[in-house]
Amino acid sequence: MNVGVAHSEVNPNTQVMNSRGMWLTYALGVGMLHIVLLSIPFFSVPVAWTLTNVIHNLGMYVFLHAVKGTPFETPDQGKARLLTHWEQLDYGVQFTSSRKFFTISPIILYFLASFYTKYDPTHFILNTVSLLTVLIPKLPQLHGVRIFGINKY
C-alpha cells in the first residue's frame, strides 16, 4: 500500500516540465536572475548577460544532466534512480515539446548574451562553452551514455 501517494503517474518526474505554467515560471525565473544581476552596481551589462547565461546553463546542467533519480516515491522498482532528469523527461521520448523548449531556451539566451556583449571574444568564448556544455548532453545519441564512466552509479 502506497500511503501518501496522490498521483497517478508511474514517475511524476516525467511530467513536471509539462505542467501548467512551468514554461512561464521558467522564463520568469531566468528574467528575475538577469534583473538581480543587473541591479548589482559593479556589473556592466555585458557581464550581467554573460553571468545570466553561465549561471542558467550551470544550473540547468546540474538539474537536468547531473542529478539522477527522483524526489518522489515511485513504483518502478528503482529504474528512475539510474536516470537523469533529462532521460526521465517525457519517458525518454525524443523531440517532444518540453524537450524542444528546454533545448531552444539556452540557445535563445546564448544569442541574447552574444548580442548584448557585442560579440566580445572573452564573453563569446565563455558563452559558447557554456552553451555546448548544456546542449551536447541533450543529443539523442547521448541518451543513457556515461562518458568516461562519469555519473555511472
UniProtKB/TrEMBL annotation:
GO CC term (a single one): endoplasmic reticulum membrane
A biological-process GO annotation: regulation of ceramide biosynthetic process
Compartments reported by the entry: Membrane
Record carries keyword Transmembrane helix: yes
Transmembrane segments: 23-51
Pfam families registered for this protein in UniProt: ORMDL
Entry keyword set: Membrane, Transmembrane, Transmembrane helix
Keyword Protein transport part of the UniProt annotation: no
Chief place of localization: membrane
InterPro entries xref list: ORMDL (IPR007203)
Protein's membrane topology: Multi-pass membrane protein
Subunit note: Ceramide-sensitive subunit of the serine palmitoyltransferase (SPT) complex, which is also composed of SPTLC1, SPTLC2/3 and SPTSSA/B.
Family classification: Belongs to the ORM family.
Role, per record: Plays an essential role in the homeostatic regulation of sphingolipid de novo biosynthesis by modulating the activity of the serine palmitoyltransferase (SPT) in response to ceramide levels. When complexed to SPT, the binding of ceramides to its N-terminus stabilizes a conformation that block SPT substrate entry, hence preventing SPT catalytic activity. Through this mechanism, maintains ceramide levels at sufficient concentrations for the production of complex sphingolipids, but which prevents the accumulation of ceramides to levels that trigger apoptosis.
Protein name per its UniProtKB record: ORML1 protein
Organism, scientific name: Ceuthmochares aereus
Origin organism lineage: Eukaryota, Metazoa, Chordata, Craniata, Vertebrata
